[in-house]
Amino acid sequence: FREGNNDSEDTDLRFVICQSLWKQVKSETEQIQEDLNKQLFDNLVSFLRRSHSEFQEKTTKWTCWMKSREIPTAALVLGVNVTDHDLTFRSLSEVLQNSITPYIALLEAKDCPGIKNLMQKLMGQLMNCSIDVNSLEDEDYLQVSQNRIRCSMTSLINWYESVTKKTDSETPSKKRTSSPRQWQSPPVVVIFKDMESFTTKVLQDFIVISSQHIHELPLVLIFGIATSPMIIHSLLPHSVSSLLCIELFQSLSCKDHLSTIIDKLLLTAQFPFKLGEKVLQVLINLFLYHDFSVQNFIKGFQLCIVEHFYSQPLSVLCCQLVDAKKKVNYFSHNQCENIRRLPSFRRYVESQASEKQIALLTVDDFLKETTQKLLEDLHVYHENYVSVLRCLHVLTSSLPKYPLGKQIRELHCACLENQVWETEEYESSLQLARMLNKSDLVTMLQRCVEIFVSSSGKEFGKTVEKLKEFLTQFQKLEAEAFQEQDVSVSSQKELQKTTDLYHLQKTLLELKESRRSKKLSKFEMLRSEVVDYIDSLVRSYLVPADHKTLHEVVYFNTASVLREHLNAAPRIALHTALNNPYCYLKNRALKSDGGSISNKAPDICIVYKLHLECGRLINLVDWLEAFSTVVMAAEGSNADGASSDQVDDIIHARFIRAVSELELLGFIKPSKQKTDHVARLTWGGC
Amino acid sequence: MPNLEHPAYPAATLLQLESLVPCRESQVSMLLSIFGERQQFSFPSIFIYGHTSSGKTYVMQTLLNTLELPHVFVNCVEYFTSRLLLEEILIQLQSCSSETEQTSHVPCDTFNDFVRLFKQAVASRELQDQTLYIVLDRAEQLREMEANILPAFLRLQELTDRNVTVVLLSEIVWELFRPNTGCFEPFTLYFPDYSIGHLQKILSQNHPPEYSADFYAAYINILLGVFYMVCRDLKELQHLAVLNFSKYCEPVVRGEANERDTRKLWKNIEPHLKKAMQTVYLREVSSSQWERLQRDNGEPGQLKGLSAHTHVELPYYSKFLLIAAYLASYNPVRTDKRFFLKHHGKIRKTNFMKKHEKTSNHLLGPKPFPLDRLLAILYSIVDNRVTATANIFSQITSLVTLQLLSVVDHNNQLDGPRYKCIVSLDFIRAVARFLQVLTVHGEVIFTAEKELLCRYNQINFKTVNFDIIKYLYDFL
């Protein structure tokens, strides 16, 4: 943080703010994660409770002993974002440990290439966690470690019996809060983290073995599945899958997860730090295009925070409003200059009267006062922005075809980018909104009222009143419509009296016409009034953030930095390193003039450049000759006599080393098709 | 049916045995005659084979238990290494002998050790004059252990010079066991499959105490009528019988029909059983879910089976990578030019479709392709610029871990890895269908979510599927 900043007086302070902000964000995201997974975990827990209730009750009913032994199994479909699974499983095992059973084993495919390794891993984890439970007995531990050599199901069962007996004897004395029945024989949960990667044979063997002992050892399996549950059938033959009693659990889709995260992190006034439009777009694109990983999104967000606090000296003001105001008071002259240098502030100054301009540019105290006011403005803007944005989203998300996007994040991006009311989509959505039917409109208005009431902004008292007025008008309309219906019913009665067919037709037509023109016009007027009102709200509150003064303080908008950090391009980096070594080495001599091959470059660069000119198979002799010509060019004229037929030994050695380095990097490989040739592994210069 | 007779055992025990092993009398009497009397040496090794759940294990267990013959029963799948297997036999030997002091664990690494320890164990027993039976269930696993294990077990009697008989149980025939070097030929005994009559008899035997045997037998009759075509596995049938019995009893419990009213009962249960065949039997729906459904009297249609959830959500580029991989796997290399180059020129159809390539590539299965070809196809089917970032490469690996692609040459990663696409045509079509196509000024841009690009004003929406069929050589 210190380096790269001229005024280092507040770097520490910025660091502290950054840390505390990140801590806040982290705890918030964890909270969100917990809430989102709660439903899933609750289902799982109840499944686990149920699965071995028969085992615990030891029922001797006819059905029970007749039924074949099935292992209760939960198939947990988690989606393809494998990077997020680790966290889910960790919290899952925590939840289970607290509520169901202390005996949990997490197995990963890479640890279990064979059934033997699987058993070893399983027993290791189970027996260790048993030690957590009764941590005092050291002799027990010794015994366990001796036993560990024999990794078979029998020893596992023996261990289980001994452990459950012990807890049985302990329960009365300790008086556990949970019901004693559960503690008599808690199930042993085995979690297969990545079902797809396990070899078929290992899984089959394990299932067959454990099904034989299901009566002695209450085992529950949890399969973590990334693709689709079909994988169970493709991995296990019927004879094995018939030993399982599989229930399916589906976790929340990661897109929903992301929307909640964005909703809670970005669309609140709670966190002072904001993302600019381009940055947000980069992060979202990374998510949708590449990995679906919420973890990565949060990491990107963290990077943004760090980068912002690192690069922007005024980020010291990026904290809660009260603190920020206090800090402005203690600003030094330097920092005031920083403020003056902000483009948005300059724009603000230019819009002021001339004497005020001078005051702003010269008097520090006046500047501080104005800054405080502007900060407050910015804060209020955020508060209003969020609620109006939600309101607009309510409106647009009910429209057909979603001209402004289905998700609120898209609307948010659109609003950040430029003045949303100038876009075509906004026009079309307003037009569509003018065609909404009444019930939709009323529910929409009600939801808007809710949003405004719950929001903290002070200016919305009037808005709420206005919206409520609209609602009552709609109700009135409804009442009128009822009356009119009565009228029409009565007129229909009249119709029945008239027998003439022609007259009947005529009156019917008249009735229809009058109804359409009269009633709908009233409703239509009100509807357009509502839409206009919302339009005015949007125009006044959804101004893009970079039109606001001092937005640089809280918005992070340098997407290029982020893109550089997040989109690693190994091939391109390697190519530039070899093709243009100056880029990394910063040696003056290497600053090449383009096409020609400099002989001052490292050997490997020369060899690489030469090989780019060749086809799929490269003749080593030609290559060596070309190499030596390039190198000899340095030595100048005195070498030309010797190089004509005999290549220098040292150059030969240098060449061989460079070629083998290229081979190590994976650019070439020795070919068996032709002697003295190597094959190129890359095509056309990356 | 031949009654079991043997001079060595009391008639009452034999009668009990007979009642326990229905439909297997001839095999049991054969075994008894081989075993002979308790002290007589029997055949050194017996090999019993038969199809799944033809009662091999059950018969052996009941036979040895009812006649109280000394025996050791080991499942070879459970004790997956030879060491575990041998140790387990020794431990069981120790525990079934009366003196229980020697509980200390004795390591037994080789068969040589085993023979020595076995002799000790048998010598310490008071039942020296009886034949000891070692039953090895799922004996096909023995083939995967060290080469000497199987031949040594076959002539254990000779090696240890004790009165011992090894019984091997397996589902496959002896011919598949015989090692190259030759070995002692065991006595083979075949357990034939149960016929439908046998199944009926066995299943009806365990009727619930609340109902009469005839009632249950009628139910089993219906059950077999539905399931016998697809499943002859006794265990599975029994499981199904138990699961669906409560539904069968429903009219009786409600008082709408009495136990003799078979026709009515049949009408009630038949559609239910058919449903069960499609769901529970295939384990699409777990049995506990099925039971809950029956209790709540819900429609079975509510429960979605496992196969119903086939849709896999993939990131945007992963979808394209998968499609590119599929195209690379099923199209011949030389056709790439035609499919993915804008100006490929005229290629005459007769030339293009060579005669010997008439067989569909889809019948031949996926072919391996190098990484570079995959990327080249990817660049040409995605119109916006894709840079080969680490994100793309890591997506390829994650597709491999998801078992959608597979690596063919695993030995050398630097050497241009080769992949195969191992998803089905239906799957890839489902993936392609979710891609929507946008047209911007007449040019086609693919996007996963059209909302993403809607902020650009010049876009006309046009949702067209990425027509993968158009790009496949087989469907030209």
From TrEMBL, chain A:
Keywords: DNA replication, DNA-binding, Nucleus, Phosphoprotein
Entry annotated with the keyword DNA-binding: yes
Domain called Origin recognition complex subunit 3 winged helix C-terminal: residue spans: 571-683
GO molecular function, one term: DNA replication origin binding
Keyword Amino-acid biosynthesis on entry: no
BP GO terms, sorted: DNA replication initiation
Annotated CDD domains: Orc3 (cd20704)
The Origin recognition complex subunit 3 insertion domain, residue ranges: 328-559
PANTHER family per record: ORIGIN RECOGNITION COMPLEX SUBUNIT 3 (PTHR12748)
Protein name, UniProt field: Origin recognition complex subunit 3
